[in-house]
Design brief:
This protein has 146 residues and is mainly alpha-helical. The chain has helices at 2-13, 15-25, 27-32, 37-63, 75-84, 96-115, 120-139. Helix 1 (2-13) packs across helix 2 (15-25) and helix 5 packs parallel to helix 7 (120-139).
Length: 146
């Protein structure tokens, strides 16, 4: 929760968060606005790497050891959570509260599939179908019309 609050504050309330959103929307416009693109992207990648390392450490601690492929099952799930949560995959928009909601939704979907005895393949297919459905629904929406 603390990391989520910090991420919300960083992305929504700081100049750095506005720089990230501007770079994600248009690098050309960000360059013309005088935003230090290379430095901002470097710092953003470093922050993402540190957070990924923390997640890997927590996952290894929780499971009692580390293996090279232990996070591979979470790859598609993390993409699904980001897409369902309303964060623009191409960049520019972030939604921390939406990520929490999407995480809970996907947790419920996976729990339901596990309860009914569905295998890993079925879970991956369902996750992919959910991603496609969200993209199709969001793609038909025009953000300029309200």
């Amino acid at each position: 929760m603390i990391l989520s609050v910090l991420a919300f504050i960083l992305l929504q309330k700081t100049v750095y968060g506005r720089w990230i959103a501007t770079i994600g929307q248009s690098i050309r416009a960000a360059r013309m606005a005088g935003i230090p693109i290379d430095g901002t992207r470097f710092v953003t990648y470093v922050i993402c790497s540190v957070l990924a390392a923390v997640c890997g450490y927590l996952l290894a601690s929780f499971s009692g050891g580390a293996a090279l492929n232990m996070g591979s099952e979470y790859l598609l799930m993390s993409i699904a959570v980001v897409v369902i949560g309303g964060t623009a995959v191409a960049g520019g928009n972030s939604n921390v509260a939406g990520i929490w909601g999407a995480s809970l939704f996907m947790f419920l979907v996976v729990s339901m599939l596990n309860t009914y005895g569905a295998g890993a393949g079925i879970r991956l297919i369902m996750t992919g179908l959910i991603i496609i459905a969200v993209i199709v629904v969001a793609g038909g929406r025009n953000p300029n019309q309200r």
